[in-house]
Amino acid sequence: MMAGRKPGLIALFDVDGTLTAPRKVATPNILDFMRKLRKVVTVGVVGGSDLVKISEQLGKTVIDDYDYAFSENGLVAHKDGKLIGIQVLLTELEVISWRRKTQVLENGTVRKNGVVIQEFINFALHYIADLDIPIKRGTFIEFRSGMLNVSPIGRNCSQEERDEFEKYDKVHNIRAKMVSVLREKFGHLNLTFSIGGQISFDVFPQGWDKTYCLRYLDDFHEIHFFGDKTYKGGNDYEIYESERTVGHTVTSPEDTIEQCTALFLA
Ligand SMILES: [Mg+2]
């Protein structure tokens, strides 16, 4: 604990869109600011990506540059440069065990595990196949450690196509509409849908959103969270809305600097 910092208070930051431009590397300006801020308050980052990706964006020394560094929403947790927690990553097949192993239907049919996730994937791929959007590429559904990542345009698209899709999505709400259909259809699975980044959304068991990292912050009674996707369905929504945090919506790294200056450095 550095001297002079307000005890019990932490400033916690989303990564993409909050400390960096979407998918970009942090500028020297924001890194400099975070160093300054760390002198007066405890600071942490929480990103949905894995530590490799977060290190690419915030620098190789990220786990030392922040008091807390949470990757994969806190499934992997570092404090003062040391690993303090890791959620054993689900294998591709174990993702299925979000649900019970077998399910007996009303007509007596027994469904084995795998069927539910298969249903989800089949439905999502059909939905994407029927979508009328200007560009489709490949890798529409990606299995990750604790989640599925679904992209209507497909993750194989170029950066230029990503930018185009993001603009198109802002007008036509492709992701938001798809999420609301999936939520309706698979509501019984207790899944969380989270729109983040430019081209996709994540699907994971309830509770595996960014609030997951709060379990490591019991020592703090004042947790300020800063994120860019704090609206319902955005990947900052749950932690922003959490009773345990004071939520702040930011629009860019520059806005983050401005709001933090007013709050902590004025
Ligand atoms: Mg973000």
From TrEMBL:
Main subcellular localisation: cytoplasm
GO process annotations (BP): GDP-mannose biosynthetic process; mannose metabolic process; protein N-linked glycosylation
Active site: D14, D16
Annotated alpha-D-mannose 1-phosphate binding sites: R23, R144, R155, R162, S200, D202
Listed pathway(s): Nucleotide-sugar biosynthesis; GDP-alpha-D-mannose biosynthesis; alpha-D-mannose 1-phosphate from D-fructose 6-phosphate: step 2/2
Subunit structure: Homodimer.
This protein's name: Phosphomannomutase
Organism of origin: Tetracentron sinense
Upper lineage: Eukaryota, Viridiplantae, Streptophyta, Embryophyta, Tracheophyta
